[in-house]
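The authors assume throughout that readers already know how a fold can be written as discrete tokens. In essence, backbone conformation is discretised, so a fold becomes a row of integers matching the chain in length. A single example would do more here than another paragraph of explanation. For illustration, here is how one protein appears when written out as sequence plus structure tokens:

…
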Amino acid sequence: MRTPNGADATAACFDGRASVEFILTGLTTHRADRITWVATELGYTLGAEEPYGRGQIRLRYVRDDSPPARQRAQAALDRVRAAGSWGAVTAQPWPTAQPLSPSLMTPLRAARAARTAKACETASPGLAAAVFVLVALACFAMAGSARTAAGSAVPSVVGLLWLAMAALTPRCTRRVHEKNLRLLEDFRRQQTARFPVPPPAPPPRL
């Protein structure tokens, strides 16, 4: 579906169905973090983010049926009822009387971390590294065919730079992925503290 206008229209799309999709154009892609936040608050997780046509991306969210996610969704609905609308809730994403701690994971920050982690999971750093190696080999071939030392210097330097990129790309992608997974884990711990799951009821007596 196309991007709905307003937080209330966005929240209305997460009505309990198994999955929800949005198609964002170039002018609305800045809403992706906000949509991901609303989805998380209502018990959904980002399943995929992928290109969709020219200048568009498609976001797919999957319902999370775990007890913490269901309790988080109920708490979000309670806040909306108290505030009167989703617009009032999203105007102050993390209301508090105390200054925000730098270590505090806000919902929008967690949403951006979720999108970045998903992008790292779907990326192909190995393929990119292979392309960089091929470009480096082409540069070295140009350097080898140069008739003068000065003519071979520039292709050689460029080839070394491409080799460095080939070596660093998988490592950097892995580090970014691990960092964002840690941020999401911090956010889940904060959410668990805010919305503790009650113990299961005792079995009925026979």
